[in-house]
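Notebook, p. 212. Picked up where the previous page left off. The plan for this session was modest: take the two constructs that came back from the sequencing core last week, fold each one, and keep the raw output in the notebook itself so nobody has to go hunting through shared drives later. Recording the first one now, exactly as returned: residue sequence, then the structure token string.
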Amino acid sequence: MAGDDKTLESEEPVFELLDEAECLRLIGAGGVGRIGYTGRFGPTILPINYALHEGTILFRTGQHSPLGEDLRTGIEHAESKVAFEIDETSPATREGWSILIQGAAHLVDSEAERASIEQSGVEPWAGGEKELFVRVRPSRITGRRIRRAGPPAAG
């Protein structure tokens, strides 16, 4: 609608930094995010579905997938530095938020840890075998939101 365009143009965008608690609240329901890491062929970013469980990001991947192969180093308890990004945007209103989690990803190989993770309910959306469980332990969580300011208060 023409009136909606004028409203968007007249309302100034507001940029907000989000604290860790708000970031975790926004991503708490799980969904789809993107994992970034340095793989065999250089910087790699892939979409994955995830669950937030006990303050960590959980997802599943296949043993022979590019991600699975890149994360498997052959070194027991090895961790890879990763970035994980989740966002939600509305092009119509030009609003949205973005959360960046940086930390270490490791393959879950102990039975006790795997049992705990299986309770999270994380299930892969893509077909095929996804037998590897991966946990990202955040070392840094940052977020930002862009929203439209409401009309100025009268008086």
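Okay, moving on. Second construct, recorded in the same format:
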Amino acid sequence: MLKRSLKYFLNCFTKQKLIEDNIINMFISVILAHPDPGSFNHAIAQTAVEAIKVNGHRVFFHDIYKEQFDPLLNSEEIAEDAALPTAIKIHCQEIATADGIVIVHPNWWGQPPAILKGWIDRVIRPGSAYEFLEGDTGEGVPKGLLKAKAALVFNTSNTETQREKEVLGDPLESIWKNCIFGLCGVANFHRRIFNVIVTSSKSQRKNWLNDVKKDIDIFFPKVK
């Protein structure tokens, strides 16, 4: 446990120093995916947004359930040069230009909620988040286009961390770190899991929200 805590501290310290070398006013994209306005996910997102603003940065915030984001990708949108609906254009522009990204969602069956998977399908798209190099017809490794200096994912779960990793393989770690952000050019990745939600106390949740603030301070520090 001590080694793990020390490793986390050194990791965060290194990442913070990399970011602090060039702290400017940043645009941070925050995406929330939970249907219940009273959920702890909403409290996480609200805490993150407030902390980002306190640190002097600007926020693109989307509660995609509240906005009734349409998760269905149709065939007309697949091509890189496809004509996109205005709402999707806005999401693509924001995620492509964001200096930082925060994703908040529950762990449902080892996956993001379906609406968030649809957001990924429609927004993390060629030309905005990644591209294939000249001569590559799509079978190679794409070049990431996202300019974000860091990506944070906050997950809630009702599964203990040890079981999630050892029995279930922690698929969300691989999805976000490798399949999405790593592929799209964001190497500075951090994910925090809050569990077990159903048995958590009020004081425990308060401490968890303090952890959210600390993570924001590390990855998106105050403007100097």
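Notes on construct two before I forget. The first helix runs from residue 2 to 20.
Flagging for discussion at group meeting.
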